[in-house]
Specification:
It is a single chain. By secondary structure, this protein is of the alpha+beta class. It is built from two helices and ten strands, in the order ααββββββββββ. Strand 1 and strand 2 form a beta hairpin. The protein is globular and about 45 Å long. It starts with a helix and ends in an 8-residue tail after the last strand. Bound molecules: copper (II) ion (CU).
Length: 158
């Protein structure tokens, strides 16, 4: 019993002495915290049923350059990233596979530019609903946000 009592303070001292040092060493070695924030996500339903819906958002990278490599939703249907182009008054769009962006330069998906297209969206999704969108990145952990669903004729949310 006497041995045990003597031994305990020694163990506590050893732990206390060891604990802070490795922790701060780890923090020093790690690069700055890196994560991507996705904000202002919204989806505009098509004017005509059966046509694709479009989606918009802003993504901002933390410490390092990033790229969106995939966007998914639990709703059935296909989800693609697109880029609008206008050439001599003709506007068209093409699918883009990955979208790189720099830290400190938020990436905007907005009407007339880059956008999401949601094909065969669940027809029960209606204005006022939210739809989960999950973004996968080249470096950062995936991010899931709730996109606000609006009608075809509604103005873009502020
Ligand atoms: Cu498109």
């Amino acid at each position: 019993m006497r041995i045990l009592l003597l031994a305990l303070p020694a163990i506590c001292l050893a732990l206390a002495a060891c604990d802070p040092a490795p922790q701060s060493a780890t923090r020093m070695a790690e690069p700055t915290e890196h994560a991507v924030s996705v904000t202002d996500a919204w989806i505009r339903l098509p004017a005509v049923g059966g046509r694709p819906a479009s989606g918009y958002f802003t993504a901002a990278a933390g410490a390092m350059p990033e790229a969106i490599v995939n966007v998914t939703s639990p709703s059935p249907g296909r989800l693609e990233m697109h880029e609008s182009m206008s050439d001599g008054g003709m506007s068209s769009m093409r699918q883009i596979e990955t979208v790189p962006f720099e830290a400190g330069e938020p990436l905007m998906f907005e009407p007339g530019g880059k956008h999401l297209m949601l094909f065969s969206l669940d027809p029960t999704v209606k204005p006022g609903d939210t739809l989960a969108l999950t973004f996968a990145f080249s470096r950062a952990q995936p991010v899931t946000v709730q996109a606000q669903v609006i009608a075809a004729g509604d103005p873009a949310p502020e």
